[in-house]
Design brief:
The complex is a heterodimer of chains A (232) and B (829).
Chain A (H helix, E strand, L loop, with lengths): L4 H12 L11 H35 L16 H29 L16 E9 L2 E5 L5 E2 L2 E4 L3 E8 L4 E5 L3 E6 L5 E5 L5 E7 L11 E7 L1 H9 L1
Parallel strand pairs in A: 1-5, 4-10
Antiparallel strand pairs in A: 1-2, 2-3, 5-8, 6-7, 6-9, 9-10
Helix pairs in contact in A: 2-3
Chain B lengths: L8 H4 L1 H23 L3 H9 L3 H29 L12 H36 L7 H23 L24 H29 L12 H32 L12 H35 L6 H15 L14 H29 L8 H23 L2 H7 L3 H31 L5 H27 L16 H30 L38 H6 L22 H17 L3 H21 L1 H9 L3 H36 L8 H4 L2 H27 L2 H31 L8 H33 L6 H33 L1
Helix pairs in contact in B: 4-5, 4-6, 4-16, 5-6, 5-7, 5-9, 5-14, 6-7, 6-18, 7-8, 7-18, 7-21, 8-9, 8-10, 8-21, 9-10, 9-11, 9-12, 9-14, 10-11, 11-12, 12-14, 12-15, 14-15, 15-16, 18-19, 21-25, 21-26, 23-24, 23-26, 24-25, 25-26
Classes of the chains: A alpha+beta (232), B mainly alpha (829).
């Protein structure tokens, strides 16, 4: 039954290939997220294939074609089978839970793993992100502000985000996941080791009429270009 | 404006104008048609009816009507998104926000809920051998509350101000500072009213299933649909109360200047918590009944008993339980910290375990069976792969770091449509094709049904499968366009084509219904060769179907009797059942609440006051017209029957008290969280010990006088009863005066509800308790008046008085908590 969708999935994957932004990560942070996506997707494909396979088999084999009207045996259950499909999902959850926990502890907004100004290694670029309906302002350490985000290649961006009005969400799919931008409260999010390029950024939390147009561009440029830009 | 669109106003509102024209024309034609076909008596009969099948049919019809409305919104969305930077009609900016907000809200509250509740109404009493739902009048009231809420919601569009903050209504966007027009007030009141209907339905279902199962129908013999209904109803009690409480606070923020969800003192994340404590269990409220339907359908059409029945029941329970421990997975990006995120990630993943068990049990129910691919079964077969695909993306979404990418993108849109359409909507269709004979005594056409299925399911996958990829490509949800550079055009174009295929599928469904009712082909009692009790009565069942209830000896007694194992006997009923009636009060009461809400939404408070009074007047009138007064007089029940009747009533009333307790629990939490506030009045300077002592001296002893009344009632001592009742009434009034004086003093001193969040949370909590006492005093006075004017029959008075005493003790208990939590900590220090 459901198996007929499998070719379509494969086709879609081929059509879109590596062009998909989230699946083509451009920072260490995003890479870890993408690895988790692939890892969980891999396990889930096994689950899908099992269910689709069993269902296709049962429907094919036991479908009433009108040739006989036998009465099926009324099987009320089977302890061994039921234990099997209780234990295996639990094992899958455990396998998934381990990397989930490790990455979540590291990557969650406001995690203690995020470097602060005190334990700086010199790789970090601290940027204050101010969101307001329907625009972004990025404020750099020397006080310069811009409407697009500029970062030096290889840097670890430590973003401190706050909104002036409603809740927004900061998202550059190529560089990493979202973090909400709240009024009256700072959120801190870290994106490690960004690679050179130009990336689309968007507001991902619905914030009103022109939410759609609340976009920005992220320019990751070489260290030198960044310095020059910052000083001008 | 930043991106000003200057267009002619007339054109800008052409969607609303068109809607008016179409609605008026269709309405006019409908009135003409009804008159011509002389259908008015039939409609009047349905409006007044309390019969579970008729109420169920009304739920189904209105659910389908709103389905087409929400579906049209979906098509507008998909058309607007068909091409990059496309401008379809006026569906951009706020109009688009209105469309997706309406689509989501309508589909959840006014489509999925009523269609499931409709099926519960039709099938559950028949499946458990009950005469009707436990409280038929309440059932009719529930329906009309739902319906008036739904109409109110839909009306907002006709006034060109639909709600526009998404179906989640996140604050502070949903507050008047950012969305000034009344749209989001329509959201608050319409969901509040229809939610009340849903809560009362849950009370009714719980009482029906606990108290009115046929003889021998043990819990271990109950079919899985009633089981799912029972557990769903418990989820509703908790989840919808959380929503009600949230909406109650949101209402104060929007209309009365409080700042629970905004500003320095407030907290917008608190709304998200309240919303998702409702919102996530809601997903299971929608899914579990569908699971129940599929279990019945798969078992019937595989000609096999459900595989692993006990585990099926346990897993429904586990899903329900875990459903309350996962809400933060909607909030991973909020910044609640890594520990919180990890905890909720693990609980979320755990839900996959009981859900997986159910999937395998369904598969193994089919194994070794004789699978008849009828239309209901086809929907069940479509459900398994579709829902499992939604389930696996659910597990992927449970991983917070991955969710940072998926969250609020079209990936999530794909995920929840796979689960909600995959389970709920396909379940509803399966249920409708399956039980149609029990609704109308006719069967839907199988051939058209298969067209409906294939178009809908193929269209569905074509719509939502590509959304996974547009989401991963970086397309956020709730955006009305995209640019070519986003590289999401192909995916969106596919989705749009798919959506229209689903629409065509739905037209086949409508055509099928029309054709079926044109044809005169009647159907037998048991057209599917069923296993459970509903197939033992005629199609459609008469209103007295289970006047002689069956004696149940197995989980599928009909099947076993057909196999010649044991005869299914119908025996003389030994216990009093629910009392049916015909009444206009439910529709009038819902109408009064509707107009009250209009008054609140537009802040015409005189209108609200008039219709609030009208509503209470109707309740008062109702107490005199209570069908049970005549019924009790005729029947002259024996004491043991009266005891059973009291227990029937008590089950429902205790369920109601669960709702009330949770509401107070949430308001206490609100108070503790926001007190003391960073600015404005401090509790130490506001509260006075003297007023608290006086109020308490009135209210606390009233529980003792109530006990005296109960003692008098039990021992038949009229004097003690009278003294107890009158003393309680007087003490209650004393409390109202004392506490009213406290409020008056505060207001006089300038401590107002909008002074700060502390004052706000004080007023919404203590004020709600105050209105409980006020209602109690009114209730007790009403009982005394009823006694005075025309004495209630024996048994009924005792029942009413006993139920009232539960209420009164409960209200007193809440006061004790108020003393301990609200006042004492600040009076002592």
């Amino acid at each position: 039954m459901g198996i007929r969708w499998a070719p379509l999935i494969v086709l879609l994957m081929l059509v879109s290939g590596c062009g998909i932004r989230v699946l083509d990560p451009q920072s260490d942070t995003a890479k870890v997220q993408t690895e988790l996506i692939y890892f969980s997707f891999g396990i889930m494909v096994l689950v899908l294939l099992t269910v689709f396979g069993l269902m296709a088999r049962f429907v094919k084999k036991y479908r009433d074609d009108g040739s006989s009207d036998y009465l099926p045996t009324q099987t009320e259950g089977n302890k061994k089978l039921e234990i099997t499909w209780t234990v295996i999902p639990i094992l899958i959850v455990i396998i998934l839970a381990v990397p989930t926990t490790i990455v979540t502890m590291n990557q969650s907004p406001n995690s203690e793993a995020i470097s602060t100004a005190e334990d700086s290694t010199g790789e970090e670029v601290h940027v204050r992100v101010e969101a307001e309906r329907f625009s972004w302002t990025f404020r750099y350490e020397n006080g310069k502000t811009s409407e697009d985000l500029y970062l030096p290649e290889g840097a670890t961006a430590v973003l401190t985000l706050r909104s002036k009005d409603v809740i927004h969400s900061f998202w550059v799919p190529s560089l990493g996941g979202k973090v909400d931008v709240l009024p009256h409260k700072d959120n801190v999010y870290e994106i490690e080791n960004v690679e050179e390029g130009v990336y689309l950024g968007k507001c991902a939390e619905f914030c009103g009429t022109y939410h759609t147009k609340m976009r920005f561009t992220t320019h990751v440029v070489s260290e030198q270009e960044y310095r020059e830009w910052l000083e001008n | 404006m930043l991106f000003g669109i200057s267009k002619d106003t007339l054109y800008q509102q052409s969607d609303v104008i068109l809607a008016w024209i179409v609605t008026l024309l269709a309405g006019g034609w409908l009135l003409y048609y009804i008159t011509k076909k002389e259908k008015w008596p039939l409609i009047m009969d349905y409006i007044q009816s309390t019969n579970h099948r008729k109420v169920g049919i009304m739920y189904m019809l209105s659910g389908l009507l709103f389905f087409f409305r929400g579906g049209m919104d979906a098509l507008l969305i998909r058309t607007q998104l068909a091409f990059p930077q496309f401008e379809f009609w006026v569906i951009q900016g706020d109009k688009y926000s209105g469309v997706f907000t309406t689509h989501g809200t309508v589909m959840i509250f006014f489509v999925a809920m009523p269609l499931l509740i409709g099926l519960m109404n039709i099938a559950v009493p028949l499946q458990i051998g009950a005469k009707d739902l436990a409280y038929p009048f309440l059932n009719s009231l529930s329906f009309w509350l739902f319906f008036s809420g739904a109409v109110l919601f839909n009306l907002s569009f006709f006034f060109a101000t639909p709600p526009s903050a998404g179906w989640t209504a996140y604050a502070p966007l949903s507050l008047d500072e950012f969305t000034k027009d009344p749209g989001n007030s329509f959201y608050i009141f319409s969901i509040q009213i229809s939610g009340l209907g849903t809560l009362l339905t849950a009370v009714n279902m719980i009482s029906t299933i606990i108290r009115h199962r046929a003889q021998g129908m043990k819990y271990t013999r109950m079919p899985l649909f009633p089981w799912a209904t029972l557990i769903t109803s418990f989820l509703i009690l908790i989840a919808f109360t959380a929503l009600s409480s949230g909406l109650y606070l949101l209402m104060f923020d929007r209309l009365f200047g409080t700042t629970f969800f905004m500003g320095e003192g407030g907290n917008p994340i608190y709304w998200q918590h309240l919303f998702w404590i409702f919102g996530h269990p809601e997903v299971y409220i929608l899914a579990l009944p569908a699971f129940g339907i599929f279990s019945d359908v798969i078992s019937t059409f595989s000609k096999k008993v459900v595989f692993g029945y006990t585990v099926m029941v346990i897993s429904i329970g586990l899903i329900g339980l875990l459903g309350f421990m996962v809400w933060v997975h909607h909030m991973f990006t909020v910044g609640l910290g890594p520990m919180v995120n990890t905890f909720f990630a693990i609980t979320t993943m755990l839900i996959a375990v009981p859900t997986g068990i159910k999937v395998f049990n369904w598969l193994f129910t089919m194994r070794g069976g004789r699978i008849q691919v009828t239309t209901p079964m086809l929907f069940a077969l479509g459900f398994i792969p579709t829902f499992v695909m939604g389930g696996v993306t659910g597990v992927m979404l449970a991983i917070p770091a991955a969710d940072f990418q998926f969250h609020d993108s079209h990936f999530v849109v794909a995920h929840f449509h796979y689960t909600i359409i995959g389970a709920t909507v396909l379940g509803i269709f399966a249920g409708m094709y399956y039980w149609y004979p029990k609704m109308f005594g006719k069967s839907l056409d199988e051939k058209l049904g298969k067209w409906h299925f294939w178009l809908f399911v193929v269209g569905f996958h074509l719509t939502f499968l590509p959304m996974h990829f547009s989401g991963l490509q970086g397309m956020p949800r709730r955006t009305y366009t995209y640019i070519a550079e986003d590289q999401v055009f192909t995916f969106n174009a596919m989705s749009t084509v798919g959506a229209f295929l689903m629409g065509v599928g739905m037209l086949f469904f409508a055509w099928n219904i029309y054709r079926t009712h044109k044809s005169s082909k009647e159907v037998s009692a048991d057209p599917w060769d069923g296993r459970t009790l509903e197939w033992a009565v005629s199609s459609p069942p008469s209103e007295e179907a289970f006047e002689r209830p069956p004696e149940v000896f197995a989980s599928d007694p009909l099947w076993k009797s057909k196999m010649g194992e044991k005869e299914l006997k119908f025996i003389k009923s030994t216990r009093p059942g629910p009392v049916a009636t015909n009444s206009f009060i439910p529709i009038l009461f819902a109408g009064a609440l509707f107009l009250f809400s209009m008054g609140m939404i537009y802040q015409w408070y005189w209108l609200a006051a008039v219709f609030a009074i009208a509503g209470f007047g109707l309740l008062f009138l109702r107490s005199f017209l209570d069908e049970r007064i005549e019924h009790y007089k005729q029947k002259r029940y024996k004491p043991e029957d009266l005891k059973k009747l009291l227990h029937d009533k008590r089950t429902g009333f205790f369920s109601y008290l669960v709702i009330d307790s949770i509401m107070f629990l949430i308001l206490f939490t609100t108070y503790v969280m926001f007190t003391p506030a960073p600015t404005g009045p401090k509790p130490e300077e506001v509260f006075e010990a003297r007023t608290l002592i006086i109020s308490s001296l009135f209210l606390l002893p009233s529980s003792l006088t109530m006990l005296l009344a109960e003692y008098g009632l039990k021992k038949g001592k009229k004097g003690a009863l009278r003294a107890g009742v009158w003393l309680t009434l007087l003490l209650g009034i004393g409390f109202l005066v004392a506490e009213g004086h406290e409020f008056y003093t505060y207001i006089h001193e300038g401590y107002l509800i909008d002074s700060n969040v502390f004052m706000a949370s004080f007023y919404v909590l203590v004020g709600l308790h105050y209105s409980h006492v006020l209602f109690g005093v009114g209730w007790l006075s009403n009982l005394l008046i009823q006694q005075g004017f025309r004495s209630l029959p024996e048994g009924l008075y005792e029942e009413k008085q006993t139920i009232f005493s539960y209420y009164w003790h409960f209200v007193d208990l809440i006061w004790i908590f108020i003393i301990g939590i609200v006042y004492l900590p600040y009076l002592i220090s």
